[in-house]
Amino acid sequence: MSTSVLVINCGSSSIKYALVSERREDRIFGLAENLGSADARIKGVTTGGAALELSIPHADHEKALETILERLAHHNPQAIGHRVVHGGTLTKAELLTPEIIERIREATPLAPLHNPAHLVGIEATMRLFPELPQVAVFDTAFHQTMPSHAYRYALPKFLYTQHNVRRYGFHGTSHAYVSERGSMLAGSFKQGGWLTAHLGNGSSTCAIWNGQSVDTSMGLTPLEGVVMGTRSGDVDPSIHSFLASNLGWDIYKIDKMLNSQSGLLGLSDLSNDMRTLIEASEQGNEDAALAIEVFCYRLAKSLAGLSCGLPRIDGLFFTGGIGENSAYIREKTVSYLPHFGFNLSKELNDNLKRGTEGRIDHGTGPQIWVVPTDEEGRIAKETEHVVDEVTASATKKPDAEAAIA
Ligand code: AMP
């Protein structure tokens, strides 16, 4: 990166930000939370790694962004990159124009919790900093290379053609970063067939062939796929009619249960946090042990399924809070994949330092790597790329026009 980019991720009552420049160690980042309440505050890390804690009572998104930018102005950011969960059928990062903002708004029914919050942030930064180029980077864009047999549901055709009901996939910036970085570490940059397992509070898997996503576990929404912190992942879709008929639940209650009360939390009846579950299972909690087992088994099943999208498997990358930090979960997951020739090294796996990248197999069979994700870094890089492209085409234009004249 030759410039510094401010990366913004707006939620309904929070804003994550990071000022990304050349060196990762210099990154300034933080979280504005509880926006709109008396307890609104900004917590983060500022220049030189110093801690920041700032009370901003009753601040809304605009006020919080103003405060963040005031504090960062002397670092002279040259562009703003917005994380946007759903870009509909947009295939790449885009400079924010009225037309692109409208496309993000049109994708709102597909991400009703996320896209409206992103739009609040986008509109606030456009008002506050009209002179800075701003770019939207979509979680869905990386998966737009999936073939139709991977992204179509076996549902009536008009639901796809008239209502955009299809699989989109999410966590695209993470899968893109990790597969690029990992394949580079493996000596075959953007070549070959790789599986990625992004395991955090939200989790998903992806199959990547020659640098392009060919299939992924999440679908129309981030609920499909593997077991997550509070999300169920795949269930029989008839669960809706079963619960409606037998328990009288309405669609909102069922949706809430599947998104917020299921997954590791639902299975364990204890916590959505993997660390807590591993500790509890070590102390004999059987529900916690089962939650971990279901998590790893379903994850392995998802990876095995996605392997159908790859002509061959060169390796597997683990990332996200769980994938980067839990040797136990990595080992258990790989143990459920005995048919792929993975040869995990217990020693390398157990001894990998937290938060570092490294190879954890014996050197035979498909490779296994841990690659810490860097979604902010990836968003900044894509933002810079879009700004460079726009600048280049703007400077080329007069020549082209002169040539036509
Ligand atoms: P993320 O959403 O990527 O921040 O990941 C959050 C998840 O990572 C939570 O379930 C944490 O419990 C889990 N996690 C973080 N560190 C560890 C660890 N050392 N062992 C197991 N899980 C961990």
TrEMBL record:
The keyword Cytoplasm applies. Pathway: Metabolic intermediate biosynthesis; acetyl-CoA biosynthesis; acetyl-CoA from acetate: step 1/2. It catalyses: acetate + ATP = acetyl phosphate + ADP. Mg(2+) binds at N9, E375. This is Acetate kinase. ATP binds at K16, H198, L199, G200, N201, G202, D273, M274, R275, G321, I322, G323, E324, N325. It comes from the Bacteria.
